[in-house]
Design a protein that fits this description.
The structure holds 2 protein chains of 2 kinds.
Chain A: H1 2-29, E1 41-53, E2 57-63, E3 67-68, E4 71-79, E5 84-90, E6 93-100, E7 104-117, H2 141-156, H3 161-173, H4 178-184, H5 190-200, E8 205-212, E9 217-220, E10 223-229, E11 234-237, E12 250-255, E13 261-264, E14 266-278, H6 282-290, H7 294-297, H8 305-314, H9 317-331, H10 340-351, H11 353-374, H12 381-405, H13 419-436, H14 438-460, H15 462-470, H16 475-486, H17 493-498
Helix pairs in contact in A: 1-16, 2-3, 2-4, 9-10, 9-14, 9-16, 10-11, 10-14, 11-12, 11-13, 12-13, 13-14
Chain B: H1 8-14, H2 19-30, H3 36-40, H4 42-51, E1 59-63, H5 73-76, E2 82-86, E3 96-102, E4 105-108, E5 113-114, H6 116-128, E6 140-144, E7 162-168, E8 171-179, E9 195-199, E10 206-211, E11 214-215, H7 234-248, E12 252-260, E13 264-271, H8 278-282, H9 287-295, H10 304-314, H11 324-329
Antiparallel strand pairs in B: 1-6, 2-3, 2-6, 3-4, 4-5, 7-8, 7-12, 8-9, 9-10, 10-11, 12-13
Helix pairs in contact in B: 7-10
Classes of the chains: A alpha+beta, B alpha+beta.
């Protein structure tokens, strides 16, 4: 009994500790317990990597403006030990500059910006007069001829700069046209190609580089769009789809011909972007990530955004694990593989629920059909599972390609499923099928999916996401509840059904 | 017929043992993990039983290596009938029963005739770990077939009826007879549709019977009334079960015992995680009996006779309680 009391005391201590730490953090950093009702804040981080030559280094990165269409910059920081840092403004464009007298080996510089979504989607530069139109690039004769032909057709089919641009993009995409094929085969990017063509039609253009914001993305590069001048204003167009106007969630990082990144004194330089969506108000976020208190130093917010977005998923895992324990110990659901449902739920977070469910069931069903053939080959277990892994990879590629051809871009997200886990699941289900019949497979498979869906719903809940990320210590409370359930000796809910015959006595 | 659910309170009143309670309060507490291999491996169980003089079906030979399989015919010479089993199989998986010879062919219990090469393939599957937990490499054991006691004729479809006794700290606490049916495909597992017949611990008489969690009064395939079942030599069977505690040191085990016409009761296998269905077959919960035994000031030097007599006295059925199944038949 004494032992039991000790255990109970530990549980209470853990749970209390978690809550007290969370409250202390709340008081210290002002992080609210509820996700903010305000507009969400995007943290965007640029990471510059290069190999320094050993001498003086100057790295210069183009920065977004304060007031962007759809977003407003509220704070920015640079982290780069040993480097001098300054933000320079020249001719209305801003650049970050890192400098150091001596550096060698691999270098990483970070710049991060906090942006608030704003209603104002007007562009300050929409009505700038076009300048600098003299830089026509000359092509060889064959390409010039092709360009002239293409422009002629486009001009005939259009009535305005907008429709001309639209027709040009359509013509460039057409597979039948030899002119288009010749132009496409050049080394230029599609956006440059479109710009050069438009310049030849006497339409002023600007290149726009920006990011499609999506939560918890890492290692993104800038996407290139094109702006053209209609005579009264600039319009943005996607050179691949021909869609005109500012895409939703598109953050304009920089405009014009100036380079994104210049590194003097280094080689192999590149810049990559990570982003994460925050649910706490910007002012408090700023305090949490720059404050001097103990809690703000120990917060996940202090990590580079690349790691933060990983933690966002990682800190949700205890929630999933607790759900599995609850479902198995208290409810008595059977699942195939103990923690497989959590991994499926994590995959659902990436794919969205319905698409995830459909593709998971499809893959496992197809895998089971293939496995029934494998069982005739008399293979050893390890070889059989390895074969299944190969087959699952094939299946996933096939589904992605078919899905893409049918126009579902969700087909691609199947790749988020943990393949080795899926192979094991198929193997286990198939043995279960042979030994205990299909009803058992449906029971366990359904149980697993039910637990996965339940875990997904919790892991997707905005409040729980907010709490788990901003108050990691609350996981101690979850830990206490898992430990408590580990000692539960009462009946499972399923046993009330299993022992129903006792009712008749 | 009752409702689809039974309340927690009712289960508690009947003293039903739940899965969580079994795992935490009994298996974790009384079964030392390092002793598990003694029961999870049938070969080890058998060798241990021979050491302690506990009767088990005679072990003919063991196949450990793949190359031994190629000249296996010589080993079968003179063996009319035998059972081929994986040492680490569970739930009756991978057991092949040969009941006779027909020329070069072997006759299986189902009546199908198979060749030596079929047996070789089966052995090779066993060695590869097809039937063992987690697919770990295994050995194949060949042992004598049980000459099934006449007292059970008409009570079983294909398989041999076996007696499952739960032994807690050496005291038998509950027993049932498991009869395979057509629905269970000759297997003795209750969740697969075998009939479980609860046996009175003092007399070995039928108390109650259930299939698929519902009470039954006769064997679903043969129509034999189950209420008449009375196991002869009941005390010897309980003694055999009780000795398994001394033999393994595991506090909470399920013993599977079969009756041989010539040799008497034989230990077939042991289970360190015995199921809960025995409670349904008995129409009562295990918990009051387990708690009673737990409360005894136990003495490991008590002989099995002492423990069996104590259990038979303590858990005796009251006289006035007529066999339930018989009542239903009438």
């Amino acid at each position: 009994m004494n032992q039991k009391r000790g255990f109970f005391a530990i549980l209470v201590l853990l749970a209390l500790g978690g809550v007290i730490l969370a409250i202390a953090r709340h008081v210290d950093t002002g992080t609210p317990f509820l996700p903010g009702q305000e507009k969400s804040v995007w943290l965007v981080e640029a990471r510059i990597d290069f190999d320094a030559d050993g001498g003086a280094v100057t790295a210069s990165l183009a920065l977004p403006e304060d007031q962007l269409p759809g977003y407003q910059l509220v704070a920015e920081q640079a982290a780069s030990p040993g480097y001098g840092f300054a933000i320079l403004t020249e001719r209305r464009s801003r650049r970050a500059e890192w400098t150091r007298r001596e550096a060698s080996g691999e270098q990483s510089l970070y710049y991060s910006a906090q942006l608030v979504e704003s209603e104002n989607r007007d562009d300050n530069h929409a009505n700038d007069p076009p300048v600098d139109r003299s830089r026509i690039v000359y092509w060889d004769e064959a390409r010039e001829l092709a360009a002239r032909d293409l422009l002629k057709v486009a001009r005939e089919r259009s009535s305005s700069p907008q429709s001309l641009t639209r027709e040009l993009i359509k013509l460039l995409d057409s597979a039948a046209s030899q002119n288009a094929a010749l132009l496409r085969s050049g080394a230029e990017q599609r956006s440059d190609l479109l710009m050069h063509l438009l310049e030849r039609a006497d339409i002023a253009t600007r290149s726009v580089k920006g990011l499609y914001l999506e939560d918890a993305r890492r290692r993104q590069t800038l996407s290139r769009l094109v702006e053209f001048y209609t005579g009264s204003e600039w319009l943005l167009v996607d050179p691949r789809t021909g869609a005109v106007g500012l895409p939703a969630d598109f953050l304009v990082w920089t405009r014009g011909r100036a380079s994104v990144l210049d590194v003097i004194g280094g080689a192999k330089s590149r810049v990559q972007f990570s982003m994460i969506r925050q649910t706490i108000p910007a002012t408090q976020l700023a305090r949490a990530s720059t404050g001097e208190g103990l809690f703000s130093r120990l917060g996940v917010q202090r990590l580079p955004i690349e790691e933060q977005s990983m933690f966002k998923l990682l800190l949700l895992l205890p929630l999933g694990a607790a759900v599995v324990v609850f479902m198995r110990v208290i409810i008595g659901l059977q699942t195939s593989g103990t923690f497989m449902p959590v991994l499926i739920a994590l995959a659902f977070l990436q794919t969205s629920l319905v698409a995830g469910l459909v593709s998971f069931v499809l893959i496992v069903a197809a895998g089971l059909a293939l496995r029934s053939y494998l069982s005739r080959l008399n293979l050893l277990l390890v070889a059989r599972i390895a074969t299944l892994i190969v087959l699952v990879v094939f299946l996933i590629s096939a589904f992605s390609i078919i899905g893409y051809q049918l126009g579902f871009s969700t087909g691609m997200t199947i790749t988020f499923f943990p393949m080795i886990i899926i192979a094991w699941t198929i193997e286990r289900m198939s043995i279960l099928w042979e030994e205990d019949g299909s009803s058992e497979v449906i029971k366990q498979g359904g149980g697993s999916l039910l637990v996965a869906v339940f875990a997904y719903l919790l892991m997707e809940n905005p409040l729980l996401v907010h709490l788990s990320f901003n108050f990691p210590e609350l996981n101690l409370v979850l830990l206490a509840s898992i430990l408590a359930m580990g000692q539960y000796t009462g009946y499972k809910l399923s046993e009330l059904w299993r022992f129903r015959a006792m009712d008749d006595l | 017929m009752g409702r689809a659910w039974v309340s927690r309170k009712q289960l508690k009143n009947y003293g039903m043992l739940g899965m969580n309670c079994r795992n935490v309060d009994f298996i974790n507490r009384y079964n030392d993990r390092k002793l598990f291999p003694l029961v999870d491996n049938k070969l080890q169980t058998k060798l241990l039983a021979q050491e302690y003089g506990v009767p088990t079906p005679l072990l003919r030979f063991v196949v450990r290596e793949q190359h031994e399989i190629s000249h296996i015919e010589q080993e079968f010479a003179g063996l009319e009938h035998f059972a081929l089993k994986p040492a680490k199989g569970s739930g009756g998986k991978g057991i092949m029963v040969i009941t006779g010879r027909h020329g070069d062919q072997f006759v299986r219990s189902s009546g199908a005739e198979i060749s030596v090469s079929d047996i070789r393939r089966h052995m090779s599957n066993i060695l590869a770990g097809l039937y063992s937990l987690g697919g770990s490499p295994d050995v194949a054991i060949v042992e004598d077939l049980i000459a099934f006691d006449e007292c059970f004729s008409g009570y079983s479809h294909e398989g041999v009826p076996d007696i499952r006794i739960i032994v807690f700290k050496g005291y038998p606490v509950m027993a049932m007879l498991r009869l395979s049916t057509h629905a269970s495909d000759g297997k003795a597992n209750l969740h697969q549709g075998a009939v479980g017949v609860g046996l009175a611990l003092d007399t070995g008489r039928c108390l109650y019977a259930a299939q698929f969690g519902r009470p039954v009064s006769m064997h679903p395939d043969t129509g034999q009334a189950l209420g008449d079942i009375h196991i002869e030599g009941w005390r010897d069977i309980l003694l055999l079960a009780s000795q398994c505690y001394d033999m393994t040191g595991l506090g909470y085990i399920g013993t599977d015992i079969v009756l041989d016409r010539l040799q008497g009761p034989q230990l077939l296998e042991l289970n360190a995680r015995p199921g809960l269905a025995i409670q349904i077959a008995n129409g009562r919960g295990l918990l009051p009996r387990l708690r009673h035994i737990e409360g005894l000031t136990s003495n490991r030097r008590f002989r099995s006779e002492h423990r069996v007599d104590y259990a038979m006295r303590q858990f005796a059925e009251p006289e006035k309680n007529p066999p339930q199944v018989g009542a239903q038949v009438a």
